[in-house]
Amino acid sequence: MRLIAHLSDLHFGRERRSAVAALQAELQALAPDLVIVSGDLTQRARAKQFAAARDFLCALPGPTLTLPGNHDLPLYDVPRRAFDPLGMYRRFIARDLCPSFYDDELAVLALNTATASAWREGRVTAAQADLVRERFRDVPAAAIRILVTHHPLLGQAAGERGNTVAGRDAVLAAAADCGADVFLSGHTHVEHAAAVDLQRGGTSHSVLALEAGTAVSDRTRGAGDSINVLKTSATVIELEVRTCRDGLYTPTMHARFARTSSGWQAA
């Protein structure tokens, strides 16, 4: 069994200090095996905001996997946006834009979808599809394969107007061929969970598409700051959404999914 905390859309520069403190305490108490941060660490990709995000990440327990979001690209600094859009992210957060994490029970790969040429909807490439095959190819069958992006590749928001990730079909095909189990994303600021069918070898294969809300910002869209907490095993995945209320992150939604012969289904 592995415990994963999935955070997204921190938006430092628009953070709520009370939520930051509450989340730090929550994660210390949870002591997850892995913390995944699926993009938008900052509001406007400024050095002060990246420094605050870095300090927050450095205080987290255990290993952390992060990737940038579209807000981590400069909006008003046109030269930097054109010639070095993720330079500040690389300087303050991480140089690797497609990081991965492996142990005996997990295989996690993050793909950067943030690009100035497709700021709102995001983009993935054929090279990233090849990377999915390379990183997931030799993973033990019992391990949970998790693909992380900022922009949703699947799920509630993936088909909405303006939110379809450019180039996603090649990545989805690679993920299906390699038996991906879970797709994690953010961007929408609204938590959502669903089992979604992919075609794998001519047959339907069901995967989990899980979106996280904004973790600590005031850009909640009425839903409140929240995080996803996942408990994973070879046969069962449990999702708990924890929402910040009265200075505490408390459970507000629970879902349980079981592995079947055709993939993952609500249990």
Please summarize what this structure is:
The protein has 267 residues and is α/β, with parallel strands linked by helices.
What does this structure look like?
The protein is of the alpha/beta class and 267 residues long. It has one domain: 4-Layer Sandwich (Purple Acid Phosphatase, chain A, domain 2). Helix content is 22%, strand content 34%. The protein has six helices and 13 strands. It has helices at 17-30, 47-58, 78-83, 87-92, 126-136, 168-177, and strands spanning 2-7, 34-38, 64-67, 100-102, 106-110, 144-148, 182-189, 192-200, 203-213, 226-232, 236-245, 248-260, 263-266. The strands form two sheets. A seven-stranded mixed β-sheet has the order 3-2-1-10-11-12-13, with helices on one face. Helix 1 links the parallel strand 1 and strand 2 (34-38). The longest helix is centred in the N-terminal third of the chain and has 14 residues, at 17-30. The chain is globular and about 50 Å long. The two termini are 17 Å apart. The mean pLDDT is 93.
Give the spatial strand order of the biggest sheet.
3-2-1-10-11-12-13
Distance between the termini: 17 Å
- Number of helices in the DSSP assignment: 6
Rg over C-alpha atoms, rounded to the nearest angstrom: 17 Å
CATH superfamily: Metallo-dependent phosphatases
Please name the CATH architecture.
4-Layer Sandwich
* Total beta strand runs: 13
Order of H and E elements? EHEHEHHEEHEHEEEEEEE
Stretches with pLDDT under 50, minimum 5 residues: none
User: Largest sheet, described in full?
Assistant: 7 strands, mixed
What count of domains describes the coordinates? Answer: 1
What percent of the residues sit in helical stretches (DSSP H or I)? 10-25%
The dominant shape is globular
The percent range for strand residues is 25-35%
Name of the top-level CATH class: Alpha Beta
